Each structure stands twice: as structure tokens, then as C-alpha cells.
Amino acid sequence: MSTLHAQIDALESALQRLRKGDFGVFNQLPLMLAELRKSASDLERRQDELSCLYEVGQEIVSILDLDQLLESILDRAIVLVDAERGFLVLWHPERDDFEVAVAREFAQGEVDDAQIEISHGLIRRVLATCEPIVTTNAQEDPRFQASSSIVAYQIRSVLAAPLLAKEELIGAIYVDTRLSAQLFDEGDLALLSAMANQAAVAIQLARLYEHLQTRNRELRDALRELQETQDELIRAEQLSLVGRMAATIIHDLKTPMTAIKGYAEMLGQEDLRPATRHSYSRTISRAVDAFVEMTQEILDYARGSGALRLEEVDVGAFVNDLCDFVEPEFIDQGLVLHRNLAYTGPLMMDEAKLRRALYNIASNARDAMETGGSLTIATYRSGGTVEFRLSDTGPGIPEQIRDTLFEPFVTYGKARGTGLGLAIAQKVAQDHGGSILVESVPELGATFIIRLPQRPG
Q1: On the CB side of 108, how many CA atoms lie within 13 Å of its CA?
Q2: 120, exposed or middle or buried, with CB in 10 Å at 0-12, 13-18, 19+?
Q3: What CA–CA distance (Å, rounded) separates 411 from 405?
Q4: pTM reported for the whole predicted model
Q5: Domain 63-253 - what CATH class?
Q6: How far is the C-alpha of 349 from the C-alpha of 388, rounded, in Å?
Q7: Rounded to an integer, what distance in angstroms lies between the CA atom of residue 180 and that of residue 128?
Q8: Domain positions in the chain
Q9: CA dist 343 to 314, 315, 320, 348, 388, Å?
Q10: Dist CA 293 CA 355 (whole Å)
Q11: Which of 16, 132, 177, 368 is the most exposed, fewest CB within 10 Å of its CB?
């Protein structure tokens, strides 16, 4: 551009001298005009080349398929510098060697493997120095005297440019012409080098995209395998859970069944007084009711259903009846059951469901106190709320299950059980519009508190 400006300034100066009558510059004008036309022609050519480079860059950067990209790069390079043949080679540093990825002959399209004859020495020179090379007469260039392909294919002019992306060597572009074709010059070399820089970035992006696609496929395969494994584990856990639940249900049902069997045998004694016989009969009836309630409660929880059957119940009689039912189990294990009934008045509740909730908590306390202890069941009333407190002197709630205590199937340190007991108790409390919480001190015991509105909305 500076040369063009200098030529324009010189022409303008000559014209001014001509106006002043200095006709000595007249003979210089044709030469100056010729040089100006040549500079304008070179500038126009340069603009066309830059425009072509821009179009090439836009095209190759948009291609993400690596094989398609390599073919497009070489095709555009051959057309860009008006070459006869072209080769795009990729560098493999782990093998310290290169491979011909794409080969083209302008007149015939793809080059057969047998026709891939290029100067390995020239390519290695470009790859080693990372510098482009141009020759206008390869037949006589001392750099290529040892190349049989130069002679065999009558190659006259050669261009080769490295493919570099952020100093990473990717490969090189090689193009040539034969004796009958045009000769390359430094302008062609600059053009091919500029395109090679764009191509290297595009190849790097395509490789990154290909790598990401491969990783995505691997991750999808791994995720599918993980999902299949997880499904297998879930199925195995479900089967195990069914077995544990069955064992728990059978274990829980043993209590009322044992009571029924024992009192039924005592009913067969001929010397029983009517009052005693009536007491045994009533105990058997309560055990049958508990049996039915327990099975129904598990079914209701599993189905997520079970509407409350609310009725007004005397809290004192309700707790005493519960204590009479569970006390034999505590006595057999050497435990003491206390009652502290500060409130014995009425409460609207589903008697069967609340009995099951309190029984679950009492059973957990019994299982936790393996070396002796006591459980106190207390009742209080505050405003419109009735509170049931079950306090044991066991080891307290383990830290590792405190946050998940009321979740279903959470259990700790029990030979049997799926952890449904407290989950059922929480559901019963919530169904009544109340709440359940726990207070625990390590080695000093735990207290479960159920608060229910005296008259649920």
C-alpha cells in the first residue's frame, strides 16, 4: 500500500511540473502509469485473495466432521493456488512420523494409493522446521535432488506449509504443479500459509468436537451400564426388602398370636372363675384386634391410604389398656414400665392407629434396652393439644440414623425389622394433624413426643 501511495505522489508531482511547462517529464508518464496499473492490479488480486481466504475460513470452521474437513481443506487449497496435485498429511508425534490423510489430483479427483508419490524429505523438512517452503524449479533445486518422485512425476513447482495451532504441530499441506503448469511464487506461499493457519485451528476444533462426541458416547454407555446395574441392585434390594418385611411382620404378629394361644389354653381350665374367664376372653379379643390392626396398618402404609376413623376416646383408659398389652413383654425381658398420666380426659383420635404408633415406639424402646431399664409413658395437655411422651433409659438414638430416623426402612442394631415402625408412627401423627419429634442424649435414653390436636380439624 505504501508503494502505491508513493507512485500516486510521483504521478501527481509530474503532472504539476507538466502544468508549469516542464515537458521533460512527459516521457516518464507512460512508465509511471504502467507501474500504477500494475500496483492496482496487484492490490485487486490481494483483495481477491483475502476475500477468498475469508470465505475459506468461514467454510472450514463450520465443518465439525474431521474427515469431511480434511477433504474440504485440501480441495480449497488446490483451487486457491491453482495447483495440480495436493496432499494433506497429519503428524503423529508418538510415532515420530506422518501419514497422508487426503490426496487429490485436480483433473482426476482422488489419488490412488499407488500414485501417492511425494517428497518425504520436503515434508519432513517442513514438519521439522515448522517453516513453509516454495520452489519454482524442483527438478534443479538441490534440496530435492534425492527425491525420485520429483523426477518420476515431472514436478516443477512445489508449495508446502505447516499446519500449526498455538504452536502445536498438526501436519502440513503440500501442493505441486508439473512442467506444463504455472510456477508458484512467494505470493502463493503467503496465501497457502495463511490458509494453513486457519485450517490448523479448524482441525483442532474438529478433533476437540470428535473427542467430546466420543466421550459423550462413552458416558452414555457408562450411564446405561450404571442404570442397568442400579436396576439389578434395586430388584435385589426389593427382594431382600420383601424378605425383611415378611420377617418383621411375622415377628410383630407373634406377640398377639402368643397371647391368643396362651389365654386360649388357660380358658380350657375347668376351675376358672367367671370373672377370670371373662378377663381372659377380653384379652384374647384385644389380641385379635391388635393382630387385625397391625396387618391393616402395614397395608395402609404400603398403599399410602387409610382414612382416619375418629372417635372420642378416654386418654387414661387408652394408655392403661396399651400398657396392659405390652407390659408382659417388658416383664419377660426384665424391664419396667411406668405410667405418668397427667391428662386422662377425652381426645378425638383413631384409636387403632394411635395404638399402633405408640406400640411401635414402645417396641423399639424394648429392643434398645437389652441390659435392663425402664420406659415411662406420660400424657399431658396444653391448650388444645394433647401430648404423649414415651421416655426410655436406653442408649439413645445413634448419630448415624438421627437425620433419617422417620424415613421408611431405616433400622439400626436390630436382628429383625425394616424400619417401618417410626415411619408408621410419623404418618399416624401427621394424619391426625399433629407431629412427632425425638429428644435423645447418648447413654441416657430417648424420648419420643407425639402432639395431637384435641379435636382435629
Answers
A1: 9
A2: middle
A3: 8
A4: 0.44
A5: alpha beta
A6: 13
A7: 31
A8: 1-61, 63-253, 268-453
A9: 10, 7, 12, 14, 10
A10: 9
A11: 16
Amino acid at residue number 374: S
Q: Which residues contact 394 (CB under 8 A, 6 or more apart)?
A: 365, 368, 369, 373, 445, 446
268-453 carries CATH number 3.30.565.10: yes
Degrees, nearest 5: CA angle 16-19-23: 100
Q: How far is CA 110 from CA 64, 105, 174, 199, in A?
A: 22, 6, 15, 20
Cα–Cα distance for residue pair 24/217, rounded to 1 Å: 80
CB 291 within 8 A of CB 266: no
The 3-state secondary structure of 263-282 reads HHHHHCCCCCCHHHHHHHHH
Q: How many CB atoms lie within 10 A of CB 60?
A: 22
